[in-house]
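Async update (no meeting this week)

Hi team, since we skipped the sync, here's where things stand on the single-chain job. The sequence we agreed to prioritize is pasted below, unchanged from the tracker. I ran it this morning and attached the output directly underneath so nobody has to dig for it. Comments welcome in thread, and please keep replies under the output.
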Amino acid sequence: MGISGAGKGTLIKNLKELWLENFHFPLSYKSRPIRHHEVNGKDAYFITKEEFEEWIENHEFLEYAIVHWKDYYGTKYEEVLDNGIEKWVNIVKELDIHWLKRLLKEKPELRPYFTTIFLDIPISHLEERIKKRWDIITEEELARRKKSAQMEEEEIAKYCDYEIDATLTPEKVLEEFLKIIQKDSNLK
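Output:
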């Protein structure tokens, strides 16, 4: 977990490059437009808002939320349960606080099966990272993301098991993450 721009995607990319056995990286489904550097089916599944809402009606999502007050993001049951938990693998999934709260409320029986790690980045660093990610971002969108980040940070302590300082280098963030996973799952 972490606010937008904290480095969740970078951490997952670096984990995938390690080719660790016994890991599964479920992709999210998103109703937002694909960004220039993203690949559909590799980074996430980009679908229409109408498709997303149809799948919500059909109860196909383990968790989902509207992010930044406009786009749906979610994870299908099959991505986590069928391809992860039932195969006894470590699942690494990028979540935001809204998704986690909903998951804990609707599926409390899953809580013993996961550890939550928050990539913590001061709001002061957020603007710089977001501007690097986007070619053009409006002041309105930037303000919306900052507000969302502030709301998330206020609730983190209630829901996260661990925090990692996301201002560290990507290599150090990866190292800290692996220490936590090893501690919590006896990963070899």
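Quick observations from my side:
The two ends are 23 Å apart (CA to CA).
The CA atoms of residues 17 and 185 lie 20 Å apart.
Reply here if anything looks off.
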